[in-house]
Write a structure and sequence with these properties.
Mean pLDDT is about 85; it is low at about 15-25. The chain has one domain (about 5-175). It is built from three helices and seven strands; from the N terminus they run αβββββααββ. Strands 1, 2, 3, 4, 5, 6 and 7 form a seven-stranded antiparallel β-sheet that branches. With about 180 residues, it is of the alpha+beta class. The protein has helices at about 5-25, 105-125, 130-145; strands spanning about 35-45, 50-55, 60-75, 85-90, 90-95, 155-165, 165-175. Helix 2 runs parallel beside helix 3 (about 130-145).
Length: about 180
């Protein structure tokens, strides 16, 4: 087992409950296009039957993968009588062992997805991300501490933008 696979396995064990809770909290609701002040409620990492296509043709070979998404709660949600609603960002699916990808286009796709996740983590954490797994664990610990009584919420500006059938989420910056 590669080091990425063992670390992803470790993360999966840490985040399984958070992922299930995030799904239950959001109920599939997505906010309209716009920019929102949001509280980060969970870092979701999933290993559940995810794969990454390693060839450019549809239905080609694939390798095991893991997914990363975030659960956000609107800071202010006047249109909801039950209080601010939560939503989960689109999951980025990353290969567990990208060194096995030989197709240059699929390798570029994997690198792009890794860059997206690292960029999101860098924006939230406020520092460079040399190690994805360490950054996910760091953010998970910060989120857990923020949700405790007296904890400081992690608040970010999140832009929601629909592009055809996909909803994209951009973390514009951390708010104080």
């Amino acid at each position: 087992m590669s080091s990425i696979q063992s670390l992803a396995s470790e993360i999966n064990a840490s985040f399984t409950d958070a992922f299930a809770q995030a799904e239950a909290k959001t109920g599939g609701w997505k906010p309209d296009d716009g920019t929102y002040s949001c509280i980060l409620e969970a870092v979701n990492v999933s290993n559940d039957n995810l794969t990454f296509n390693v060839t450019s043709e549809k239905g080609g070979a694939s390798i095991p993968a893991f997914g990363v998404s975030f659960t956000w709660r609107l800071r202010d949600d006047p249109s909801s009588p039950d209080g601010p609603r939560a939503f989960r960002s689109r999951m980025e699916v990353l290969p567990k062992n990208p060194s096995t990808i030989k197709d240059k286009d699929r390798l570029a796709a994997a690198q792009t997805k890794m860059g997206v996740v690292k960029g999101q983590l860098q924006t939230i954490l406020g520092h460079e991300i040399p190690d994805l797994i360490a950054a996910l664990l760091e953010l998970d610990a910060l989120v857990a501490a923020s949700l405790q009584d007296g904890g400081t919420a992690i608040v970010c500006s999140v832009q929601v933008k629909t592009n055809g059938k996909y909803v994209n989420y951009y973390i514009n910056g951390r708010e104080s």
